[in-house]
Predict the structure of Permease.
Amino acid sequence: MNFIKRSFLSLQSRKVKSLILLAIFLVVTNLVFAGFTIQSASSKATDLARKQLGADINLRIDINKYLEEQNSNQNANEARKVPSIEKKEADKLKNSKYLDHYNYLKSVIAELKELHNVEPSGGAQSFGPNNNLNFTLQGVRDFSLLEAAQDKKLKLVEGEGITSKTVGKNVAMIEKKLAEKNNLKVGDKLQIGEVMDEELTTKELEIIGIYESKEEAPSFGGQSFALLEPANQIYVPYSVMNSLENAIYSLKDPKDIDAFKEEAKKLGLPAYYELDAQDNVYKQMIGPIENIASFSKTIVIMVSIAGATILGLIIMLSIKERRKEMGILLSIGEKKWKLMGQLLVEVLCIAVLAFGLSLATGEKVSQKVGDNLLSSEIAKNEDKPEDPIAKLSGNPAADVDPVDNIDVSISTEDLGKVGGIGLGIAMLGTILPALSILRLNPKQILLKDE
């Protein structure tokens, strides 16, 4: 009789054991599906989180690293001044292949002679020893690349804006309300008076553009300062100042952030220069996702090992019960490889059926497992107290919500992985126990059965 036909007859005659094997295979395939699909969904969620945060990297001074470096090089009692970013250092990154565009920023509190500042609604306090520092000079490389400009909160309404072509020129952009209050127009001059903690390259600026702001002035306990009023922000080329405060590098793709940072390390920037891509916010958002992705890998390994072991034990017990059948078949001339093939066909038929059923149940099981694991991880993170050292250092944890949902779906790649693991489990669970019997000759098998 054909060994494949014997396999189907054997399955029909051993319905209970076949159902037990089917149940075990179904559990194994569902859990392995859960492991792989959760990993895939986690990877998509982390990519989405990074895209939501954008591809902007901020070059700035890491105060803690700077102080550590100074402590090792200077007398502890010697006065220190926090450095600014040097343009020559910032320029090292502007030719990166990952870069789309960049901007240089610097803000300076200043007095503008014979210019009346715009008062915020509710009034505002003046700043400075003579209450004359009511304006902020915002040094930029390109006005249009500012986040507020890209969000349509700042809009050029007359003249031209600050661009890379205006760098090196003594020009300025003023807000529409400030222009109206002081009867200013494009082409008029601004005279700079006192400036706080900065040496400027000029004391006179020509107005080349007028912009309109939809931003709101921040307040502190109900108090506001005139220099923080959006209408009192005067945009100038960063070259008007002698130093930089920040350099913003916008990459073509958020996936290139790590590569860009590695490239920057090789350029020899000072150790206290920090490239920040909102890393703390990103880690806070994806923390729970990374944890369940790691756990899902463990699920795949543990379930595969446990599944192969359990199936192997069940098949071994089944083979021992069938020693007489095997001994008789071998004694009448049946080949050992055909007996092995019969056992494999039996197990593979059950495995294929379980795999087919898991296609209908796997996605729902995976989504349920993923949601429960993610909820548990988020709850753990919420229970963690805030780091007091980080809070005192001025770098408290960002107030952002972690990724709280994952969209689990079974892909072709997942099907291939689960199918491969299922096939491996079926073959190992069948061949190893079968070899322990089939290595004997028919007489030895029949004597053992007695």
Q: What stands out?
A: Strands lie at 56-61, 99-113, 135-140, 154-159, 171-175, 189-195, 204-213, 233-237, 246-251, 273-276. The two ends are 26 Å apart (CA to CA). The first strand starts at residue 56 and ends at 61.
